[in-house]
Amino acid sequence: QMQVGMEGQMQVGYEQPGLAVEGGMLMASGEQTLQVNVMNARGLYNADGFLAGKSDPYCICLIPEKPKHKFQTPVINNCLDPDWDHTGRIEGFQAGDSLE
Asked: Which residues 6+ apart lie within 8 Å of 34 measured at CB?
């Protein structure tokens, strides 16, 4: 489990058995599929303005080097402390790729 910007949490797991993680780095060759659980965010900025209600947050998780490899959580309306507990899959992840 890792914290994202001290404002939320997500968990990352690997679907393929037999993979090793050493020093935070994936030690495998070839493309892998990640399972990412976006859990929550806290204290988000209200981007809708004072009279329009609260923000409608969602989270996009992607490999920056491969922007087509991504998923998005559902939108939670009028909420600054969303709890998604949403699991998405990122295919095409390789050792050395980053995740945003």
From this structure: 12, 13, 14, 15, 89, 90, 93, 99
pTM here is 0.72
In order, the DSSP letters of 38-84 are EEEE-S---TT-SSS-S-----EEEETTEEEEEEEPPP-SS-SS-EE
pLDDT digits (tens, 9 = 90+) for 42-87: 988 888 877 788 999 999 999 999 989 999 999 999 999 999 999 9
Burial class (CB in 10 A: 0-12, 13-18, 19+), 16: exposed
